[in-house]
Class I SAM-dependent methyltransferase (Streptomyces cinereospinus), 270 residues
Amino acid sequence: MELVNAFAGTSSYYRRFGPGIPTDLAALLNQAAPTGSPRRLVDIGTGPGLVAHALLPYFDDLFAVDAELAMLAEAEAVLRPVLSSDHQLRTRHALAEDFLPPEGWRPHLVTCGRVFHWLDQPRFLDRLSEYVAPDGVVTVFSDRSLWTGGCSWQQAAREVVQDFLGEQRRAGDGFFSPVGPPYEEVLRASDFCDVTSTTVPVHRQWSVDHVIGYLYSTSFAAQHLFGDRQDAFEAALTDALAPFAEGGQLPEDNAFTVLTARRPSVRKER
């Protein structure tokens, strides 16, 4: 299952309903990366640019990379209006494993969220070793999705999705591939083998409409998968979530696992 096919048709929902990253995570990524002027960021699998948006206060020269043109269009719509005159943003339609910045352009930070699962990870990390700054940092991070979330309302929502789409987790028109080796193990086998793991908690409040929109932004519950049963799905989900709503809100306590990886013997001075 290709990444582009898995997320076909989800870009507008991702822009409107994707939760993005918390400010504490953005601050952690800023602290992990070396300084520079200009300070350079590559955001891999940028989607609608939510991670890049959170890091705009810290970086002024950015590449936003995605394999789907529709996602890049959403990123442009999110990021261009809020750029200052000090920012330079370039978007690139490319596979993460193929992307190369201009010769001599070396990022201080590379961010890679859940898209890491979909990549040829060793090949991607080999490509990064060609262009990341000598003291640059590669970060891989994700929180639990609704499919893997542990609270009662998330489990109820997942069961409704499974009632309509089947027990096996979907990935667009295909199915989610098995999870490979732990990401930390993959990073330690690369040039970026000095790895630190950090947990960043996050609390969210969801409405039922927000949950529906978020589900349509995912590969496992993309809107087109429901076909002519979309209205029935939304009604069933609304009914299933009603007992859990507190004043119309569905609380979630989640956490990001953040892996920061460097070449050996390269440590940022504290």
About this structure: The domain at 3-145+175-203+253-262 is CATH 3.40.50.150 (Rossmann fold). The radius of gyration is 19 Å. Strands lie at 40-44, 61-66, 88-93, 109-112, 137-142, 170-171, 174-175, 194-206, 250-262. The longest strand covers residues 194-206.
